[in-house]
User: Fold these one by one.
Assistant:
Number 1:
Amino acid sequence: MGAAYIVDSEKAKLFYGMASEAGEGKTVIVGHHNPDGDCIGCLTGMEAWLESAFGKKGVMIVPDNFPDYLKFMYSTDSILVFSRQKDRSRIGEAIARADLIICMDFSALSRTEGMGELISKSGAKKVLIDHHPSPETFAGLVFSETEVSSASELTWWILNALGPDSAIPFKAKESLYTGMMTDTNNFCNTVYPSTFLMASQIADAGVDREKIQMEIMNSFSEDRMRLMGEMLLNRMRMYPDLKAAVMVLDKKAKEQFNYRDGDSEGFVNLPLKIKEVEISALFTETDGFIKVSLRSKGAVSVNRLCRRYFNGGGHERASGGRLYMPVEEVEGFFEKCLREFLHSGE
Ligand SMILES: [Mn+2]
């Protein structure tokens, strides 16, 4: 079992105590803006575990909507969405009266959009479970580790530290496996020996990996598939001297292909399949700002690039941020910034 990720057992016990003491409906589990597979995976995995360990339901909350292809996971229809008007007051109440708030898969409260203040103000105990660098200090108990594949993997090892994995319900295993699988881009990026061990243990429990694979990888809509074609054929610009590729997804293209939340998930990884491309950027026009996604397959830290120019950050090879400028100006701005950044030798 040398590959297992070792969780501090004192911290794990503290977490167990907090979770067992929290009242019915008074554990709130919070995910991040633009919820992805890892976010929904660890939220629903944690909820399934809480229910089976203590017989108490928690409240799962995300800032905005998540894609349909994640809805096969446990209890996703009970997840409250802050950007939905009808969920707002329930979310406000749940956070205000919570005994315990578990923040998962983000390191900064700004990633919860408008909920950061509600969370800060709440008198609940706060736990952070995350795999991004430099976590903020809003939580009293922090499980933060960048040397794991995903927040779902970290959750797996925390739950394992609390008892035998037979005590982790099947539904939680399915969710945590999905979170790990999506965050590693199907075992391509940030995979550690501990990640394979987790996968092996979960496979051993009989989780249907083929089914999960189908749900995640082979459930595109026709519109999403054609949008991907459009992006690659007509909207990918190459910068050979910078070893970079840039794609811009503007509102016009979104309309043309009936864009839905999550439709561009994974697009930013595609240019990295080109041998010469080491940095890939995807800019997505939304209401009020341009969403920035950056990926690297070489030595360039897109985390630092993002922090310096794009109002964001993340991991060394996968980061995100925001720009506030007309969509037509984004490509030129990116080129200028990247040139300066590479020149500065960072
Ligand atoms: Mn993650």
Number 2:
Amino acid sequence: MSSESGADTIFALASGQGRAAIAVLRLSGAGVASILGALVEKATPPRQAALATFRDPASGEAIDRGLCLFFPAPASFTGEDCAEFHLHGGPAVIAAMFAALAHFPATRPALAGEFSRRAFENGKLDLTEIEGIADLIDAETEQQRRQALRQTRGDLRHKAEGWRAALLEASALLEATIDFADEGDVSPLAQERLAALLAAVRADLAAALAKGRAGEIVRDGVTVVIAGPPNAGKSTLLNALVRREAAIVSPIPGTTRDAIEVRLDIAGYAFVLIDTAGLRETSDPLESIGIERARKRAEIADLVLWLDETGMTPADLPPGVPIWPIRSKSDLSDGVRAGPLAISAARGANLDVLSERLADFARGVAGQAELGLITRERHRRAFLIAEAALDRASDAIDGPVELLGEDLRLAIHALESLIGKVDVEDVLGEIFARFCIGK
Ligand SMILES: Nc1nc2c(ncn2[C@@H]2O[C@H](COP(=O)(O)OP(=O)(O)O)[C@@H](O)[C@H]2O)c(=O)[nH]1
Ligand SMILES: [Mg+2]
């Protein structure tokens, strides 16, 4: 048997690396019950925390005293027999426990994401719920946490399963029509029911797609590009917002040549701030590359802050991205002027106003995401394929049964790949590669 068999009993540290008050060690697999029998004296009651002395089965020497939990299959995270040891979080304790566990037959350390993978394979979680767990572990802001939690609860899964059920009913209706009618057309009565089923799913898909990239923006952060002419104070603003020297500031125009990205939490929302090279004509090849990157980044930004000492915005910026003109270095100009928000990054003037406006912008986006289902490009692709297929099916509802059936199958397939009933291997690797060991 290979050393990575799915039949092995696996174990891993579920808590973080390094010294800690408590470390949680997690086990899953058919060998868990006998491992428990060998490590702890008293039988552990299912789903109850019990104080236990963990002993090395070879020497009988005590390794540690801690809590032991046993979750018999199938009511466990993975669907297999599972156990958790809450140990003292010292490296020697963990090392001794790992060494003791490695002596059991067909028992080995888990691979990254292997617990979740088993949960998926045993039908405990679908793909979208697993993505939700990954996002919850990665969540850095309140909004990311809330969105990820909704997905772990199965919000997207239940919707997709409901649509799939409706489309399967439509398929069955179609099959029945083929069996019982000679003409090969759908009977008017069946047509009506079919149309209703398709229309309901189409409306839901369209509503979810209409929320735009809101869910993805919450998950990935609001991308804000700081652009403007050289020396406008872009790098100074980035540093002031993140409160550290992330970008080099200098009076020499053309200092920033590469796009610098920093993550920032403003009022519970994730932002990705990007400082760019000043947009200007230049003969310096390195600076040209930076300027080209700045343009490219601005095209895919959610928002562009255009910094200029005069408060002007140029006309040739990419369309479709909101641009906020901002007058920089307000400390150098005299008196209040009408027009765009004036800031002084050097003096910290009006940075609170700018932060509040950025938070409002994110709030507007996240407000849409509140009921949104799509949090990844993968979801969007599946929704779009299903929607297009259902559009064609609805148009062809009085046409040949075969064409209708094919489009229905396409839509069902898109939903099934979304929740991981088909095409699983394509996405599993991508998802689990990002997991840490013990998840
Ligand atoms: N007086 C004043 N000078 C500033 C301000 N912001 C930046 N500067 C100065 O302007 C120059 C260019 O700043 P920098 O942030 O590198 O501009 P960038 O080229 O747009 O990134 C530096 O000498 C900064 O110290 C400001 O708010 N007030
Ligand atoms: Mg700069």
